[in-house]
Amino acid sequence: MSAGDETGRSLSRLTPVAPAAASAAPSVPAKTPWGYYLAALGLAGMGIIFLNDYRYALAAQKRWAPSSGRIIENHVVTHRGRKSTSYNTFISYTYSTETTVYSAGPIEINKYKPYMTGGGAQADLDKYFPQGKIIDVYYNPENPYESSLGLAGAPGLQVPLAFFLLAFGAIYFAREIQG
Predict the structure, then answer these.
(1) Order of strands, sheet of 143-148, starting from the edge strand that comes earlier in the sequence
(2) What is the chain's alpha carbon radius of gyration, rounded to the nearest angstrom?
(3) Does 29 reside within a domain?
């Protein structure tokens, strides 16, 4: 009885593989860097959001009427999640126009600065925004209830610049993968 498989076919009738075909390298699918491009898109989007905060503060500082204000309260809000805790810093302030005294807040300060402890966040507030401190406030002359701290309350250009650089880095790696 000859050797065969379950169907009863003889294995000797199989066509041999040519040696040249056996030594050919298996085809590897081309690497697609779409993940890097999507990461770059997300990072650039975050950069644009942070840049808008900066642009809004700069526009308020340039176009709105300046006034003197006083910080009336500063406090830290703690958010506890299942795995982490975050700390946000807030201030409230008063400012005056030619005829009226207004109050604003609580508004979040340093919202892009990560704090590891509530005490660290409060120490930062007490150092830069202590109660009673006189601050520069900019208010909208057409709607004096609308006010801003100008660039003092903005993230600065470092934050959007960092996101844009990370986005360009992701694009660079994607192009390197493509070859």
Answers:
(1) 101-109, 85-96, 65-80, 134-140, 143-148
(2) 31
(3) no
**Weakly modelled stretches of the chain, pLDDT under 50:** none
Residue 11 lies in a domain: no
How many domains does the chain divide into?
1
Instruction: Establish if 98 belongs to a structural domain.
Output: yes
* Residue keyed to tokens 């986005």: 167
Q: What is the pLDDT of residue 98?
A: 87
What is residue 10's predicted lDDT score, i.e. its pLDDT? 54
Residue range(s) defining the domain that contains residue 75: 34-178
Give residue 109's pLDDT: 87
Q: What are phi and psi of 13, to 5 degrees?
A: -85, 0
Sequence-ordered list of residues with C-beta below 8 angstroms from that of 73, at least 6 positions apart, any chain: 91, 92, 105, 106, 131
In tens, the pLDDT along 72-90 reads 999 999 999 898 899 999 9
